[in-house]
Amino acid sequence: MKSRRRQITGRIIFGVVITLVLVYIVFLFVTTNFLGSNNIVSETAYRTTAYETIKTSAIVVRDEEYIDNNASGVLVYNASDGDKVTAQGVIAEVYQNEDDVVSMQRINELEEKIAYLETLDSFSSGVSIGIDTVNAQINEQLLGVIGNINTKAFEYIDDVTDDLMSSILRKQIITGEQKDFKDKIAEMTMEKNRLEESKPSSTGEIITEHSGYFVSSVDGYEKSVSFQDIDEVSYADYKQIKAAEIDESKYVGKVIKGVNWYLLCPISYDDSVNISHNSAEVKVRLPYAISTDIPAKVRFVKQFADEDQVMLVLECNFMNNALSKIRSESIEIVINEHEGLKISKSAIHDDYIETENDDGTVVREKVQGVYVNYGNELVFRQISILYSGDTYVICDENPDPETLVDGRTVELYDQVVTEGSDLYNGKLIE
Length: 430
Fold this sequence. Notes:
7 helices; alpha+beta; 6-stranded antiparallel beta barrel
């Protein structure tokens, strides 16, 4: 009796399994042949730029001269970091004590504010401008401030915030919230005149011997690499570069002589193949110092005996406050830029394109391309790859027609299929 029950149970289980298998087979058949078109995923072909870069470390080498501090007293600098200075120019003035310095700084501050308010005051009686225009300027400048903060472009933050404040004050003038600044200007002028009556006299001056760019600090690297012999620095030498121990109180700063300065950096042999000749133009990114790319020229590429690293010297002549103080940096060297249409690698397939000869014969040629969704039909388009990344490629928007089988390629804003089953040229989709 138990055996009979077991047989029946076994047959039931077997029947259920067979039924499930058949249902699954039918499901696969239906989804593949009837519902597959509904599972198609596509992306829009957008234009973008891809960059080929070399990441490495670098030491900044400049032709630098110390400025001795031979004065007794408190210094007030006349130049900011990165400013151009002339030979025999006054870098700083010396005052007897801190109170004298505070008084001089206040006078200078008042002069700047008075000049600023006079500019705004002249706006109220001069240029006629609509409130909509000013509002547009405020919105644009506010976005500029936010953009500089998001990209960490702090070297420009003072300029953009000053412009924003000027626009806000101009709006107050237009709307009548602020009539003018004559009372404020008069108040500041009285304070400045009062301070100038007892204006302290400087007890000395600091003069620079050389012309160039001024920097108010020293770091000990100024003489660590010979500026004249930079082409002879090997990778072994590079690893030994370090700051010298110096007494910073002996110097008021330094002058970077000339306009050119160098980035000394080791790269691999494979990377050096991409930078194989002098005078090649590249762009350099210093993400921890400045937000914009700076132009550079390849001065020297050299591999020394028994060393696995190649020494690269890049020549730069762009200078500002931030760049005047950098020394040891992580950098990216942009060696190539590729602009075109960005396509996911998952969208690339090999398929045939048919063309007809003059005699009416049809020729089929297998090429690499993508399926584009035009309305409710898939069309296979040949592509010309300019650059290949990890998950995407950059395709040429305007390749040589001679390289295209039917003269057609993927276009801007095409809906390129990245996922889908049973894809083929001419397939109708629902």
